[in-house]
Every structure is written in structure tokens, then in C-alpha cells.
Amino acid sequence: MDKKLERPRAGRKLSGVCAALANYFGLDVSLVRIIYVLLTIFSAAFPGILIYIILLIVIPEEKNRYLKD
Length: 69
Fold this sequence. Notes:
The chain is an all-alpha fold. It has a domain at 17-58. The two termini are 24 Å apart. The protein has helices at residues 17-25, 29-42, 48-58. The protein has three helices and no strands. The longest helix has 14 residues, at 29-42. The relative contact order is 0.20.
């Protein structure tokens, strides 16, 4: 099984971090987004925005299949 943690180009809302996590773990994207928002809002110990920015920098974007690299 060849699973990669990549931010997809299709099906993302902001930058694709939640979509990448959902695809990697085999979960529904809506479920991951709801859990992330609830953790960010209701948990004082969960710095959601900072973690989102870090994941945005760390997780690479999916390669464009139409351009040759």
C-alpha cells in the first residue's frame, strides 16, 4: 500500500490540509473538518490555527499531472 500525505488540488476548501489528512487516514473530509473546528473552538489547549499553518508548510501539495516535472 503506497499512501502519501499530500494536499490535493481538487476537493479542498482553504489549502487542503483537512482533505490531505482525511485521504491519508481513509476518513470522510467533512468529518475531519468538523472535528478540527470543534477542537479549535472548544479546547483551550489545542492551538488550531498554529497547527494548521504548520501542516500547511509541512505537507507537500499534490503534483500537477498535466505538467512534466
